[in-house]
Amino acid sequence: xxxxxxxxxxxxxxxxxxxxxxxxxxxxxxxxxxxxxxxxxxxxxxxxxxxxxxxxxxxxxxxxxxxxxxxxxxxxxxxxxxx
Length: 83
Ligand code: SF4
Description:
Elements: E1 16-18, E2 24-26, E3 39-42, E4 46-49, H1 57-61, H2 67-75
Antiparallel strand pairs: 1-2, 3-4
The protein binds iron/sulfur cluster (SF4).
């Protein structure tokens, strides 16, 4: 993944796992329930990204209150956010 530090990106390699030759996923996002290894705190209480400045592009592109955001919230039993 070109976003990894080893590929001149900014995402720490140790927090990602390769999926294909060009794709990686954040560790823990394939767990059940999914939980990114970089996430700090307790879902539903208070959380923060532990690598906020170095987070990958999909995380940067996900906007609070977007469809993707609200689907993720529902998966964790949280109410959707109003736009
Ligand atoms: S924003 Fe941070 S904690 Fe959330 S999925 Fe992305 S890297 Fe993980």
